[in-house]
Amino acid sequence: MTPPPRLALLLALILAGCASTPHEAAPPPTGAAPAILSDAWQAPLPTGAARAEPGWFARFNDPLLPTLIQAAQTASPSLAVAAARIERARAARTAAAAGLKPRLDAVASASHGRAAPSQPALSSASLGLQAAWEIDLFGAAAAGRDAAQARLEGAQAAWHDAQVALAAETASSYTALRACEAQARQSRADAESRGETARLTELSQRAGFIAPADAALVRAGAAQARSQALTQQAQCEQQTKALVELTALPEPELRRRLAPGLAQLPQPAPLALTELPAAWLAQRPDVAEAARAVQAAAGDRSQADARLRPQVSLSGSIAGVTVRGGGAESSGTTWSLGPLVVSLPLFDGGTRTAAAAAARAGYDEAVALYQAQVRRAVREVETSLVSLHSTEQRQADAVRAAQDFEASLRATESRQKGGLASLLDLETARRNALAAQAALVELQRERATAWISLYRALGGGFDAARLDAAVTPRP
Fold first, then answer.
1. Is 382 exposed, middle or buried (0-12, 13-18, 19+ CB in 10 A)?
2. How many CB atoms lie within 10 A of CB 237?
3. What is the DSSP code string of 242-280?
């Protein structure tokens, strides 16, 4: 049996009306107001050739660093949390998309009883399908689906942001450890040299060639050097512990891997930077995440506005029924199409209106957060560029200072052995040489860290165009 022609025609008209009023998803923000971004970077640009891509750390002159980054990403709780949020967002998107489709349930029932004292007992059983569909006449369900899709893409961008941040943190910790080892090596060499000087000075004092005050000065310098060497070694141990936490590698294994490159600072490959910020914004996963948050808020606002309008729903069922009673039995098929229900909100105490106002406020908040994220991103890039420029300008002077102070120390040692310089002059020259070497190592660490910061500020090779809602990234 077929539905009445008029009812079928009415259903077709309703479906045509729904098809003629589709919900259009809000595009992600692609630009910013002139007050947020200027036409070009204000800090000096580096003269690099490499791009900020995921494999950039492999261009360090250190084969161990990519291995440590991979270990850190495999064991990272933050990446595991970000991946779980992607799965949760994907489930929410599936649930939101289901609201656009009819719901179909299998229904079975059975009963036995007597309706009246004079009537025979009746037994009935039915098995069928029951359908219900809330027709998305004004796009509320479509807006919810689009908001869920935007949140899924935002969760994926957040995973990439956590991945880039972890790689940068691991590289910075590794660079700090190597710089610490280089300074610890210098401190140990200085302590050994001063210890030997103190031993020879003690012998000279016993022979009466050196005054006790001068010998005391040398012993004090040796003790201070030993203390500084121990302090520096403790700092290196702390840096090693930090790498153990980041990579989750057993400490003996990590130390074995670190041993071949002891005190060797990694040198990163220079990065190239485009001149226009607008071309760079897509390389920041946090900016992409903020943009998707604006999209999601726009979907929430559209959905809340649509809930203020009439809601249309349609239901129907079909079932096979068997009835037995009084020695007779009958069976057949029953069906229904409808009711077609149109509900118009008249009074709900302001609930829907308040929800729409809250959604509009949520959209304004998301836009403000997006603008703030863009400004923060520009500041991070500019700060990294300033650090790079500063370290480049200071490099030649730091090298010259270390070389000249070292030459001065050697000359003072020769003059002191010939009796032309005092022990005080020797200790002063030694302190100056050690400070200059430490400053040079620190400058090299600062420059490597600035390159790492710039890599992170440029997004670490992230490309928002490659966000795939069907694939969950795994650490």
1. middle
2. 13
3. HHHHHH---HHHHHHHHGGGTT----PPPBP--S-HHHH
Short-list 28, 32, 282, CA closest to 160: 282
Q: Where are the alpha helices (DSSP H) in 101-250?
A: 140-206, 212-247
Contacts 24+ apart (CB under 8 A), 286-289: 286/157, 286/158, 286/161, 286/373, 286/377, 287/370, 287/373, 287/374, 287/377, 288/28, 288/153, 288/154, 288/157, 288/462, 288/464, 288/467, 289/154, 289/157, 289/158, 289/161
In whole angstroms, what is the distance from residue 108 CA to residue 31 CA? 56
CA-nearest of 230, 236, 255 to 173 is 236
Q: Is 344 exposed, middle or buried (0-12, 13-18, 19+ CB in 10 A)?
A: exposed
The pair of three-digit structure tokens given for residue 424, joined into one six-digit string: 């005080």
The predicted model scores a pTM of: 0.81
Give 10-residue mean pLDDT values along the chain (475 residues).
40 38 53 47 67 80 92 92 93 89 89 79 87 87 92 93 93 94 90 85 82 85 91 95 94 94 88 65 85 94 91 88 81 86 85 92 95 90 90 93 92 85 81 89 92 89 67 43
Name the one residue in this structure whose structure tokens are 């949390």.
Answer: 81
What is the total residue count of the chain? 475
